[in-house]
Amino acid sequence: MSDPLQIKCPHCLRTNRVPASRLGEQPNCGACKKPLLNGDVATLTDAAVTGFATQSDLPVLVDFWASWCGPCKTMAPEFQQAARQWAGKVAFAKLNTEEAPQASSRYGIRSIPTLILFRGGQEVARQSGAMPASQLSAWLSQHLGR
Prior knowledge:
By secondary structure, this protein is an alpha/beta fold. It contains four helices and seven strands; from the N terminus they run βββαβαβαββα. It has helices at 46-54, 70-85, 101-106, 133-144; strands at residues 4-8, 15-19, 42-44, 60-65, 91-96, 114-119, 122-128. The chain has a five-stranded mixed beta sheet with strand order 3-5-4-6-7, sandwiched between helices. Strands 1-2 form a two-stranded antiparallel ribbon. A hairpin with a 2-residue loop joins β6 (114-119) and β7 (122-128).
């Protein structure tokens, strides 16, 4: 039996322990019963962003955005497409900077959209500006060595 991984649910944000050998079996959240690894994007708050980024054994990519931002709106479907492509390998989340000013300040967000990639709870890469799913995927591959 393999060591369990801690995976945050993109729906209820609860932490789930999933054996690495069962990741391919499309596990569901123990709390809300929704799929854990189907490419859904979590919606984060000021309070949830740090826990989501630090309590997951998967790398976590957070999109800092705002509803009034044109490039953010353009990138939203590309971000969702990339989330589906990386399902089970990277956890994707969005944080609305208007609704989460403390997190935006804590992470030094100066422009949007800004993507921050966390691994083991630590920031490993940051990118500002909208990009298509293919470019986002290449960026992730570069920083995750895949």
